[in-house]
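Translate sequence into structure tokens.
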Amino acid sequence: MKKLILLSLIITFSLPTFSAIKGKDKYSTAPTAIKERLLARYEKDYKNKIDLKKLKADTLALNGKAVPALIQVMKSNKYPDKNKWMATFLLGRIMGKKSSSFIAKFSQHPSWIMRMASLKTLLALNEKGYGKVYALALKDKSYIVRVQALENLRQMNLKKYAPYVWQMLYDKKNYHIANKKNGEATPSKTRSHIIKKVVRTVGDLNFKKAQASLLSMVQKKRYDDIFEEMDYALSKLTNKKSPAGNKKVKKNFWKRVRMSKITI
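Result follows.
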């Protein structure tokens, strides 16, 4: 009888203890508990920027403790795209260049959003050692991703990959119009805006081999829609600036430059 009473007392006084332990889970600093709490927050589809900013701030406050959760968010399809995007950026911010090789793998992810997030994060990290990744992305099926890859090469001044940029002028995908909803493209007979960026980038990367072609193209009326970009690129490639005036004045100037380079 005494044993039964004792057992009853043990159970009675133990219940609050177990309850308290369970209630403390949300405050636990154990790595597993932190990860689970953060993952639960990343599962939510936040509708306003305030909530996203709070999630961002709290993630950064956790610093390295947030890394396991961020990696899982990036790898899983169960989380909203905007949260996966943010997780990619925050991983790069917390780990710095130590995260680059992992983040670079997402440049081949099935989702264009993750491919885009990968490139933008690598740019933020000023990762010049991933030129091959950016060059490959110049042929991505997503227009938006191609634009970002081009921007990576331009901003990091990766001149070695200028030939890949020049090749974009001959890629049919770049004569399409981007679909804002999914980053893909729809057919068009006209040059897309990316072509203008390509021409300017060729100049910024000082791709001398493009000079002769541009001097010829700038004279042709069918390229008038990218005339300003060709004028800019030629000024970079030749170290000469066309005079102020209309297209005719500028075309005459570049014609003289072209003639001066012809050897008889």
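Note: DSSP finds 14 helices and two strands in the chain.
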